[in-house]
Structure formats: C-alpha cells, structure tokens
Amino acid sequence: MRTSVRIIGTGAAVPAEGVTREALDKRLGLPPGTLAANGAARFRYLSTNETAAGLAASACEQALVASGLRWQDIDLLVAANATMDQSLPYNAALVHAELGLRDHPIASFDIGASCMSFLSGLDVVGHLLHNDRYRTVVLVSADIATFGLNWKRLHECGNFGDGAAAAVLRRSAPDEASCILASGFRTFSQGVRYCEVPAGGTRFHPERVDQASYSSLAKFSMDGKAVFRLVAGVMEGFVSDLLRDSERTLNDIAAVVPHQASRLAMDHLRSRLRVPEEKVLDVFDEFANQVGASLPTALHRAISSNRVQRGDDMLLIGSGAGVTLGGIVLTY
Asked: In terms of Cα–Cα distance, which of 177, 170, 179 is closest to 8?
C-alpha cells in the first residue's frame, strides 16, 4: 500500500572540527598512510564540545527554512538515532529543549534502530501522516560516534564521523505524486553480537561490573567481516523483494541513497546490485560513517544538489547493528 508522505525540506549539520585521514594518522601517532590502508574516509567531522542534541537542532532549523515553515506549523518531533546524549531523558526531548520550544509543547519521541534509525522513522512517520495522526513532522538523526570508539582498532574506527540530518514531512496532497511506494525491514539476530556497545544500559551497569571492565564495555566493537558476510548474503534478495513490492525496477530508480557504512560496503553495493556509479549518492569520503545520520545526510545532498527532482523514484537502503536490513522505495 502506498503511503502518502512528502519530503518538503531537509537540512544537515556537522561539528566545527573537520579532519583529513592524514591529519588523523598524525594525531593518533600512526605511520603516514595507515588510515588510508585501512579503507578510512578521506575526511570526517569529529565532535569536541558539540552534543547530538545541538547538532540535531541545527539540522532541524535548516530543514525548516528549506520547507518554508515555522515551528508553529510542526506538531511532532522525532529523533531517530543510534547514540544517546544521556540515558534519560530521550534525545527528542533534549532536541526540543535545545530548540527553545518550551512554549510549543508538541509531541516528541525517539526511534532507535542503529544505522537504520532514520529509515525506520521515515516508515513509522509516513504511516502516521498518511492516517492523519499528525500534520507536519520533523524527523532528525544525530549521532556522535567519536567518544564511543576505540581508536586502537582502526578496522572498526577508521570509518566513523559525527553529524546530523533532518527532514520535514507532511502528507501528500491528492494531486501530488510524492509517496512511499514500498518499505521493508528484516532483523537477522544471529548477528546481534557482531556490532555493539555493551555498556549504557542495565545489563552491564557500573553496579554490576568493575570500573576497568565497564570502560572497555562502553566502547564500540564490531566483527566487520561477519557483518559483511551476513549482509552480502541477503542484500540482493531483499532489494529484489522491495522493488517487486514497489512495482519498480532498478532502471526506474533515479537515485540510490545508501547508508554510508564503509568504502568496501559502498563499492560492494554498487557492484552486486549493478547500479551505475552516477546513480549512487556516495558521500562517504566527505563525512565518513555518521551512524544513523549517515543516510539522511546523503539524502539531504541528493535533494539540495538537485540530484533528484520532484517525481523521481529513489531507493533508500542500508544495514545496521542487530543485524538489521532496511529499505524504502519512494517517489520524491
């Protein structure tokens, strides 16, 4: 069933500090070329004093300007992210406060599905708009990976950067083609330990583990080869089913907007799906993997640079910790 939803404005924000992989080699005391040899992004933004809520607020404001609306026109704020500024309250409330919306007490909540948070949010919000539960929604993803990384494990950490991206959404008018044609999500929980930050909840609370153990549990770890094998084995069939449900083929798709997981993952996606290079929104070397903010940053680039026009069909696709595979085919 098609979901009547229209993207009417997007925005993105990054921390003030940008760093090349060569400069990061030097900062980490590594031989020149180490990060390049590990497939790291050429450039990325790393947070120093910024918070996820602060970056999210900046991206929201940009998206609002692009949509020509004011906060008085918005009745729902959704934060879709992998990392949290703090355990409580939830990120959307922190973003609401950062925006100074105390006199505009709209509904807000979080959606968390790791790197697939934005796609999951778009799917859920689309149905809420389609069914007239809300009129106009701001959906924002903001992630700061920097402080959860173990920089001694470059095959895991060389891919990451920080940032935020937002979209303003409303229900499509009857004479507008914009809609979600099909969406799909699958969780392959045999890979639940392949990509994780164990600490942060009650399972590995400081009251349960010693401080030295907790410190290491609070760092990101990933079995990249296992994730790659799992996703590679199911990606083609997943995309085939998604396109069938959307009644489209890859030839109909004007732009493929993937999660910017890694250079290897981006190249593999293009190769396995046999998608022309010019159709794929590849911003990995500019921003690295911004976790949940990665895909909407690429989507913002597609829209703001006029790579897609109204009426174009797009495929949004990616995977995340869980291991979760997600995709949406939509008419912009």
From this structure: 170
